[in-house]
Amino acid sequence: MGCSYAYPVMQTADAVQAFRTAERLFELAETLEYAETTAWATLSTLQDVERILPALPAEAWLDSGEAGSDPHHFRPGELPADPAALGALLPLSLHFDEDIAFGSFEADLAAVVGDVPAGIHWHLGGWPATPEQDWSSSKYSGVQLAFNCRELWGDRVDGHMLSVCVRQGDLQRAEWLAAQVGLRVLGPPVQSL
């Protein structure tokens, strides 16, 4: 299919507000029938794990181990209950091997993310054709929300960045999508999933 590009359209300190705005963008999708979700996070403290773990679906993977080492893989229910044993596994990296059902955990994660660097990317069922702009339907469609970073897997910052994903060079569609929810494109795109 190729890759899409994420244009930032909202920066805010409120993770729940950013998620609610993402939901408004979902309403613009041609269909959500095949929509899927991917996510990641880095959990560095026991408090992060205690707060985030209940928001995760069973399909999540948590990997322990530093970059370059052989990680240990856990499902959320497989982590040790003993705080000392759990602490020895930190930091934990959250990821999914497969896309997760749309709408299954995202609101819960946004509500508890706190200062954890994390991100969610939604693969949507296409942006609609818009006769007034003479645009055909676009399969390069998505929304991504970077918590405590400017882009997915980016450097840590204060605040959350919401982006719309479109075909490379399709700034006009990104601007149109942003305008439909009262926003505007804030800067240049980054390559998306």
Task: Tell me about this structure.
The protein is an alpha+beta fold and 193 residues long. It has one domain (4-191). Helices cover 21% and strands 30% of the residues. It has five helices and ten strands. Strands 1, 2, 3, 4, 5, 6, 7, 8, 9 and 10 form a ten-stranded antiparallel beta sheet that branches. A hairpin with a 6-residue loop joins strand 8 (142-149) and strand 9 (156-167). Helix 1 (15-26) runs antiparallel to helix 4 (106-112). The radius of gyration is 17 Å and the shape is elongated. The mean pLDDT is 88.
Q: Can you give keywords for this protein?
A:
alpha+beta, ten-stranded antiparallel beta sheet, 5 helices, 21% helix
Following the backbone from N to C, one meets helices and strands in this order, namely: EHEHEEHEEHEEEHE
Low-confidence stretches: none
Assign a percent range to the helix content: 10-25%
Distance between the termini: 11 Å
How much is the radius of gyration in Å?
17 Å
Query: How many beta-strand segments?
Result: 10
Principal-axes geometry comes out as elongated
Largest sheet: 10 strands, antiparallel
Q: What structural class do you assign from the helix and strand content? A: alpha+beta
Overall number of structural domains: 1
Helices, by number, come to 5
Query: What's the mean pLDDT score?
Result: 88
* Beta-strand proportion: 25-35%
Explain briefly what this protein structure is.
The protein is of the alpha+beta class. The protein has five helices and ten strands.
